């Protein structure tokens, strides 16, 4: 449920007029994060970290280099997502600048969450380049839609035809995943069908106009996003030493990705590891799983974040110099 929906619901029940209600909501959020932190702490205590570090050091350099290559390919491809928004809005910002903004926001998005990285950084940087907020909003919507279209397509196909083996204690079984996969595939089919035959091309959602892309553009969205998710999976697959079937790694990674979004933990910290260990620890030793995921975080989260931080500071410094020159 969105914040706007919660606010409307609270106003409907007269809760916003009660001074204790905002504090109660904040207290509930605090309790939730304390519980998450406690869970991560208790899980971390069961890990033999010395063994994990040894496993990382024993990892073949070839697998690490291949994982780095797939990680770089993923970032290069994701940096093109905002170009779809550039095409649909028709703004004239240069392609390299658009890709740089996309790269920086994606790196911060992964590490700090979508509200800070995916949204705030885009608005900040695009405004520095003279883009209006309304145009930026349409670019952000199109980019996020592109990203999750590929996820929905892959998750639908994987869960429908080859659902991952879930632990016995989970409230979801293989049949439930197949049903979910069918629903996701239906959603993708409906989206593509609307793009192909809908007569009404522009929709207003919460005051923002959303224009349906053409069938060709929708197909491009699905291709780019699906390929990006596959690149990410390839990085993890090689860091795991190719000891598991690729589709198994893909299915678990897709589960971990959506779990990280639902829990709203920055960078999915601990969520990724928890899901992989819970599902795959009987097939691969826990230390090897954690070693691979630690290496993955270093390659796909921390290294790009360092580069993005330098790029962001350089863009801010250049913008200040330009501002000072104009005055």
Features:
2% strand, disordered N terminus, 2 strands, 327 residues, globular, two-stranded antiparallel ribbon, 13 helices, single chain, 77% helix, mainly alpha
Concise structural overview:
The chain is mostly helical and 327 residues long. It has one domain.
Molecular structure report:
The protein has one domain (66-326). A two-stranded antiparallel sheet has the order 1-2. With 327 residues, it is mainly α. The longest helix is centred in the C-terminal third of the chain and has 41 residues, at 286-326. The chain has helices at residues 3-12, 20-45, 49-57, 61-78, 81-89, 95-112, 114-128, 133-161, 174-197, 215-239, 246-263, 271-280, 286-326, and strands at residues 202-205, 208-211.
* Average pLDDT taken over every residue: 81
Total strands: the figure is 2
* First-to-last CA distance: 45 Å
Spatial strand order of the main sheet: 1-2
Shape: globular
**Uncertain regions: pLDDT < 50 for 5+ in a row?**
1-13
Structural class: mainly alpha
Helix content: over 70%
Series of secondary-structure elements, N-terminal to C-terminal: HHHHHHHHHEEHHHH
Total helix count?
13
Largest sheet descriptor: 2 strands, antiparallel
Number of domains: 1
């Amino acid at each position: 449920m969105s914040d706007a929906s919660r606010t409307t619901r609270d106003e409907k029940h007269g809760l916003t007029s009660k001074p204790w209600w905002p504090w109660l909501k904040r207290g509930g959020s605090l309790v939730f994060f304390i519980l998450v932190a406690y869970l991560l702490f208790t899980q971390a205590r069961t890990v033999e970290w010395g063994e994990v570090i040894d496993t990382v050091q024993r990892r073949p350099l070839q697998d690490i280099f291949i994982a780095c290559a797939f990680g770089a390919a993923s970032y290069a491809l994701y940096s093109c997502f905002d170009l779809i928004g550039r095409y649909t809005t028709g703004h004239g910002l240069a392609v390299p600048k658009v890709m740089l903004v996309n790269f920086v926001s994606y790196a911060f998005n992964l590490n700090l969450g979508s509200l800070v990285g995916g949204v705030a950084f885009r608005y900040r940087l695009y405004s520095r380049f003279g883009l209006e907020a309304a145009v930026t909003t349409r670019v952000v919507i199109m980019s996020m839609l592109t990203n999750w279209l590929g996820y929905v397509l892959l998750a639908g196909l994987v869960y429908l035809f080859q659902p991952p083996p879930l632990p016995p204690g989970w409230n979801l079984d293989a049949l439930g995943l197949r049903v979910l996969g069918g629903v996701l595939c239906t959603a993708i089919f409906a989206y593509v069908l609307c793009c192909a035959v809908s007569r009404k091309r522009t929709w207003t959602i919460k005051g923002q106009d959303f224009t349906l892309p053409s069938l060709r553009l929708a197909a491009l969205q699905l291709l780019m996003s699906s390929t990006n998710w596959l690149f990410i999976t390839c990085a993890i697959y090689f860091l795991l030493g190719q000891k598991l079937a690729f589709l198994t790694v893909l299915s678990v990674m897709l589960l971990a990705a959506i779990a990280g979004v639902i829990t709203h933990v920055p960078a999915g910290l601990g969520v990724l590891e928890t899901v992989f260990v819970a599902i795959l620890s009987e097939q691969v030793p826990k230390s090897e799983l954690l070693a691979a995921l630690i290496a993955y975080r270093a390659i796909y989260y921390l290294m790009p974040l360092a580069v993005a931080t330098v790029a962001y500071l350089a863009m801010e410094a250049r913008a200040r110099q330009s501002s000072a020159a104009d005055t």
